Amino acid sequence: MPEQKLTGAQIIIKALKDQGVDTIFGYPGGAVLPIYDALFQQNDLRHILVRHEQAAVHAAEGYARSTGKVGCVLVTSGPGATNAVTGLLDALCDSIPLVCVSGQVPTHLIGNDAFQEADTTGITRPCTKHNYLVKDVNNLARIMHEAFYVARSGRPGPVLIDVPKDVQFADGIYVPPTEVKHKTYRPQVKPEIARVEEAIELIASAKRPVFYTGGGVINAGPMAAKLLTQFVKTTGFPITSTLMGLGAFPASDAQWLGMLGMHGTYEANLAMYNCDVMINIGARFDDRVTGKLSEFAPGSKKIHVDIDPSSINKNVVVDIPIVGDCGAVLEAMLTMWKARQKRADQAALKDWWKQIEGWRARNCLNYNRTESVIKPQYALERLREALRGKDHYITTEVGQHQMWAAQFLPFDQPNRWMTSGGLGTMGYGLPAAIGAQIAHPEAIVVDVSGEASFLMNMQEIGTAVQYRAPVKVFILNNQYMGMVRQWQELLHGSRFSQSYSEALPDFVKLAEAWGCVGLRATNVAEVDEVIEKMLAVTDRPCIVDIAVDPKENCFPMIPGGKAHNEILLGPEDTPSSATPEDGMVLV
Amino acid sequence: MDESKIEKHTIAVLVDNEPGVLARVIGLFSGRGYNIESLTVAEVNNADHLSRITLVTSGTRMIIEQIKAQLSRLVPVHRVHDLTDEGPSVERELALVKVAGTGEKRIEALRLADIFKATVLDATLTSFVFELTGTTEQVDDFVGLMAQLGLVEASRTGVVAMSKGASGF
To answer: How far apart are CA A215 and CA A533, in angstroms?
Structure first.
């Protein structure tokens, strides 16, 4: 095919289209005017105009996680790029594939303190998987295609391409996306068979096994989730998951223990503590999960499947590391397990399940239901019932409501749950919900939110209205930054410093100011009706303000610096000893 | 294996010679709190635009393994070799040392330079600039001695290293 001569801006658009992109989230500015001009003159690529560049990146994250595709962002130079930094770091921490094109001042002005100039590549170097500054328009097409390859290969992540304005105007040669054979970056996808053999032997010899799965299974695609489910069902072992991995294995299945970690279930955490074989598939032994490292799953042998070699033996030394894509490794394991007709010790497994059932009987997610005030858990239980049987997408903001959503909303499929795990960015939920809704216009998308988090990116309601994205913002309004208040209560003598939500707006009036539906529930009797009305709105966003108990704390909880078996189950549980200094300093 | 023992390792990294690569490597070390004792970089293959970074770092065994894994994961990095682990290797440093003085001290400085096989790059009636190549220990010793004989300034390159034998890095 003859090489085409196009302007830099046209090259960018064509590269995006050739990479299968149909939606891009962004905000214009001086340094990207040529690209916006090229966008205006075509109809294949749809641009979603946000109200803040941070939201453009979160929306692209929601789009990416709900579809498995690479999310795309377009921002201008200077403040446009710096506003995107939080979103880019969020994508890096949660391994979300994104490509972000940022404008830059003309090449001859770089380093001259020009208007809206920032050292974008310098600033974003530590918060992207990789970044590029394009100084020659003839490299632009190749770099665009390389960026997509880097974003989606190995452990996915955000890639930024900084394009100076004169490069956008200049004429250059367009090169199509041939199989990009990157000279250096070639992550290992298929596992070493010898390792898989070792793992299968260890799994077959287990007496108290547990699967510990994470976001890596989601990133490996829906097939990986299916293979995981098959493998777990075939072995009959219990399975738990991190916050990022929810949905890879169906929560409705009896082998599901619930989420593990700081606010995970009693049975999941005790199973991890008492297991003799831990099978980690696509999780990274994050500190929210391990608690006190020196007492994490003592006496257990660990298998760790991860596509990123630097994740292995980083926090926890494992016995059988397997570098590879979760889907490829699970396929190899399942095939070998069946071919060799492996079976674990059924009698030991039966005893193990008996132990687990004993822990389950504690009913750790129980809470004091009352008629006098709406409990946040109750509101989520009623939401769960109303959504049963209907395909839905859930995003969350950050805090207590996020943990309750993870505990009370079950997921039977991957790519339905979008939350900010690694970075914990308040203000993520609403734009991510918009991104998911844009990708799935007919679906039910609910952003489970807190009133403090909602305020951080509430301007995006305008974006949702503009594109008729009927997202439902389900605010659990407890008048505090709940998680901060809980830690202040536990660790700082209930000195609630700056954690009260003063001067809140009337959320119903706020919704109506944008032409949206606003609903409020202030007592238990109103909750069901409000949820029903919320789900009935299909042509515009809906903001729901549920007044919940301000004093409710999120349990179970493993306090910072404690081990899994020191889990607190309720307000009556007092920590066995004062939180040690290294626990205090943990966030 | 004592997991808390601090080890010193010399690591050679082959990277694309493109703007920002060194910043990427330095940023990795500073961002994660790893230690850089010395670092030197130069282009070694002009046709393929490749540079070799030689750095000396120290940490526990787990940290050293993490450093190598994190370096490998950088997109412009071609290869990472731990010369301390991979077998016998040679290391050298180069130093330029300016010494000023007259009389006995000047004579002693010249005598020691001769013993250390340093060459004289510049000589005036009251000063010398010596060039010395040697192991880090030898350079440390030389500079230490000159410090008592009128050392004005020293400039050092940091370690370059190479594996012994026909193959390897």
So the answer is: 33
